[in-house]
Amino acid sequence: MHTIYLDNNATTRVDPKVFEAIKPYFTELYGNPSSMHRFGGQVGGKIREARDQVAHFLGCDAREIIFTSCGSESDNTAIRSALEAFPEKKHIITTAVEHPAILSLCTHLEKKKGYEVTYLSTDEHGRLDLEEYKQAFRPDTAIVSVMWANNETGNIYPIEKMAHIARENGVIFHTDAVQAVGKVDINLSAIPVDMLSLSGHKLHAPKGVGALYVRKGLAFHPFLIGGHQERGRRAGTENTTGIVALGKACELAQTNMEAENTTVKALRDRLETGILQAIPHTRVNGDPENRLPNTTNISFGYVEGEAILLMMDQVGICASSGSACTSGSLEPSHVLMAMNVPFTFAHGSIRFSLSRFTTQEDIDFVLQTMPSLIENLRTLSPFSEEKEAPAITKRFAK
Amino acid sequence: MWEYTDAVKDHFFNPRNAGVIEDADGVGEVGSLACGDALTLYIKVQDGIITDAKFKTFGCASAIASSSALTELIIGKTVEEAEKLTNKDIANYLGGLPREKMHCSVMGQEALEQAIKNMRGEAGPKAEHSHEGNLVCECFGIFDEEILRAIKENDLQTVEDVTNFTKAGGGCGKCVDEIARLLRQARGETSCPAPCKAPAFPAEGMTNIQRMHLIESVMDQDIRPILQADGGNIQLIDIEKKQVTVKFTGMCSSCPSSKATLENLVEAKLREKVDPDIKVILED
């Protein structure tokens, strides 16, 4: 069965060009970059090159890049470093729609370490209110952490404005840009972001590598202590293949981003409009204006997300859901709940996320398959418009 | 990804008896859109025998499969027989459900009870709680009587168990303390007069699957760490009734004292923590 992979916000396919670039570093150039001999040294040179590629892509200095093992490590490092730098400051500002890497860390700090956290709310489209944000600053605010783009809805947040506001308040600004890197223009030389997290496997590098940007001059406290790697800022022998891959992936993204975004967005829009038109009781969750070009989060009323996903899986379509049942929790996605998406729709939400490898045929197949699939599940459902009669609005249907 | 049994998948992809009985003799509606799953059960009864049953379900794969299994289980039974059906019967019919999904089988049991009450004219199709009960979980609208019954019928031990079976405590978590109190209360009620007597052995009243899980967890927590400290390990090969077959690996496989380890550690621990009659043998 042909797999139609529309779950690229979960992880992406390693680009064959990236794979080619890293192959020699498994079995031939396997030296330790810290070694004195030339055999290891040449690997060190390649890591420098990768660091330059990442820095160039983000518009920063190579010395401002720390390689990590994943986005979650970058997020943890950033927040814990800021807190350690200002031990007297006990307040954090973040949003209610962050990735668990930030959200769970913040609740942990609240419950176990005596911190106070302000979780900024969103409107029904998942947008933040800058006035609420400005009011949230306190004399003891240690750090602001706001995601650049949301993994579930694809919403893009006004990071430039928010970073300026944090700067005016003299507070460190961190952004979890895991979903944004490679899809949104980022130039760190032009905006006052202090720290930024990214993850390799969301932009066609393998799993197990990430990076943290730390602005020059910012007080930094390492999370992993040990060897001298990463200039003492992150101990542990370098994940050479991962780092080389991340460098190559950034180079590819830099060259292709504009063209890619146009093609991917066209496919996404066709998928979204097609589903909204063909299937009744559907709506898009997210910001109509500022969304990642590859993401659409669509709710199907009166049916449950896990059931939809398993039906899709039967015909080879991969996506994900914000329903409660898929995660093992009993409540639907915190992102959809923060947006006040009615339960009718929250339980039946499906996220489709595309990539450079998504084809026209993939989208055609989904558009052919989804209507009957949803119809079959609705036949089983005890609910319908007549029975539940919620206000159904097709948001930004064209 | 959930690990569903083939039976769950079969009943999800090919649900039996889906639909509505227009002139049903009894209807039971449980759950809601807000809760994420809901089931309406229709039954047709003739001369005290359930001649037909149909369902409509909103929910995940295991909710749909549980509803389908429920109808298969009750068609042809007398109402009295059907009344004795528990959520365990539904789960067993499907070859088991993931623990986190047990509440789907409980939903089936509740819909059946409601449909029978409705048939007898004792209630409407929708379950309404008596005023004596106390609302414990506000997020999912679960009353203390439902929780106590689930604890008793399924021998639930922890708050997490209660959440898996009834959903109570799975939302904001405010009622977790109250659930813990109900667990203590239930244990107090089921045992002999003071001083409280614990169950004769921990696995008493467990289903086969629960007992197998318990054996696995005792292996992981109490046995493996000790063997691993000496560079060895153990593999669980089979569990048949009270006979557990294992295989030593690593250093243990060639260790001259492996027989003593088998009796003094493996068997002793399993007897202490699972069942006093367990016999452990080595794979041939």
From TrEMBL, chain A:
Which domain of life does the UniProt lineage start with? Bacteria
Q: Which cofactor does it need?
A: pyridoxal 5'-phosphate
GO molecular-function terms, A-Z: cysteine desulfurase activity; iron-sulfur cluster binding; metal ion binding; pyridoxal phosphate binding
Q: Does the keyword Phosphoprotein apply?
A: no
Q: Indicate whether Transmembrane appears among the record's keywords.
A: no
One Gene Ontology term of the biological-process aspect is: amino acid metabolic process
Q: Which SUPFAM superfamilies match?
A: PLP-dependent transferases (SSF53383)
Record domain Aminotransferase class V: where = 4-364
Substrates-to-products reaction catalysed: (sulfur carrier)-H + L-cysteine = (sulfur carrier)-SH + L-alanine
**Keywords associated with the record:** Iron, Iron-sulfur, Metal-binding, Pyridoxal phosphate, Transferase
EC number assigned by the record: 2.8.1.7
**What NCBIfam families does the entry give?**
FeS_nifS
- Which family does the entry's similarity section mention? Belongs to the class-V pyridoxal-phosphate-dependent aminotransferase family. NifS/IscS subfamily.
Role played? Catalyzes the removal of elemental sulfur atoms from cysteine to produce alanine. Seems to participate in the biosynthesis of the nitrogenase metalloclusters by providing the inorganic sulfur required for the Fe-S core formation.
Assembly and interaction partners: Homodimer.
Task: Quote the protein name from its UniProt record.
Answer: Cysteine desulfurase
From TrEMBL, chain B:
One Gene Ontology term of the molecular function aspect:
iron ion binding
Q: Please verify whether the record's keywords include Phosphoprotein.
A: no
The residues covered by the NIF system FeS cluster assembly NifU N-terminal domain are 3-121
Which UniProt keywords are present, listed alphabetically?
2Fe-2S, Iron, Iron-sulfur, Metal-binding, Nitrogen fixation
Question: The NIF system FeS cluster assembly NifU C-terminal domain covers which part of the protein?
Answer: 215-281
Q: What family is this protein classified in?
A: Belongs to the NifU family.
**Which PANTHER family does the protein's record reference?**
IRON-SULFUR CLUSTER ASSEMBLY ENZYME NIFU HOMOLOG
Can you say what this protein is called? Nitrogen fixation protein NifU
Q: Which organism is it from?
A: Desulfoplanes formicivorans
